[in-house]
Amino acid sequence: MVQSGNGEPSGGAHGGSSFFVDNGRVKSGRRSLIAWSIVALISALAFGFLLWGVLAHNGLTRADLEVATFVAGHRTAWLTTVMRIVTWLGSSFFIIPLGVAVGGILWLRRHTWRPVLMMSAAFLGAAGLYDIVKPAVARVRPPAALQVGGPDGGWSFPSGHATQTIAFYGMMAIVLIAWYAARRRVLFAIGAALVTIVVGASRLYLGVHWLTDVLGGYALGLSWLAVVVIATLLLRISEQAPR
C-alpha cells in the first residue's frame, strides 16, 4: 500500500488499498457509505426489536431461561477455564492496552493518528452507550445459581463485553485493512468476527448474561461501529472531492 503525503492510505499498484475511498475515488466511497448505512439501519432495528422483547418480556426473551439452564447444565471443567480466560478479550483492561499498541504501531508505520482516533471513538462510544442503556432498562442478570463464580453485579442488558468487543475489534480490523495490509482483509475480518463470537459465547457460558443481552450488545455495538465508519467516510469524501 502506498502512503499519501498526509499519512492516509492511498492506491497502490494492486489497487484496493484504501478501505474507505478505493484509490481515492469519491464514487467508491459513496458506495461504501450506502453499504454502511444499511448496516447501521439493520443493526439498529435489530437492537430495537431485542429491546422491545426485554421490556415487554416477549420475543426472544422467552428462550433466555431455557438457554441459560441448558448451558449451565453442560459445562465442563476445562471449558470453564478457557471461557474465563477468553472473556478477558472483551474487557476494557485488555482492549485499551491493545488499542494503544495497535495505534502506536500504525503511527510508527504511517505517521497518522487517525487509526487511534477511530478505535477510540468506536470503543468509547460503545461503552458510553451501554452505560446509558443498562440503567435505563434495569434488567437483572441471571440468578447466581446459573453463574460461574457469581453473583456478578450490575445490570444485564445489553452485554457490555459484547457491545464493546464488536465495536472495537471491528474497527481494529478496519484500520488494519486500511493502514497496514489490505491484502489480508479477509484474515482481519475473520479474526474480528471470531473474537466477537467467542467473547459473547463466554458471557453466556459463564452465566453472567442472558442470550438476548449478548445479541443486544452485538446489535448496539455494530450500529455504533457503522456510525463511526459513516462519519469517517463522510470526512474522507469531503477531503477527496474536487474543490
Structure description:
With 243 residues, this protein is an all-alpha fold. The protein has one domain (23-240). It is built from 8 helices and 2 strands, in the order ββαααααααα. It has helices at 26-56, 64-72, 77-86, 92-110, 114-137, 160-179, 185-205, 211-240; strands at 2-3, 9-10. It has a two-stranded antiparallel ribbon with strand order 1-2. β1 (2-3) and β2 (9-10) form a beta hairpin. The longest helix has 31 residues, at 26-56. It is globular, with a radius of gyration of 19 Å.
List the main descriptive attributes of the protein structure presented here.
67% helix, disordered N terminus, mainly alpha, globular, two-stranded antiparallel ribbon, 2 strands
| Category from helices, strands and their pairing | mainly alpha
Q: What is the number of independent domains? A: 1
Instruction: State the total count of DSSP E strands.
Output: 2
N-to-C series of helices and strands:
EEHHHHHHHH
Sheet of most strands: 2 strands, antiparallel
What's the tally of helices?
8
Provide a concise account of the structure shown.
This protein has helices at about 25-55, 65-70, 75-85, 90-110, 115-135, 160-180, 185-205, 210-240, and strands at about 1-5, 10.
Task: Set down the secondary structure blueprint.
Layout: E1 2-3, E2 9-10, H1 26-56, H2 64-72, H3 77-86, H4 92-110, H5 114-137, H6 160-179, H7 185-205, H8 211-240
Antiparallel strand pairs: 1-2
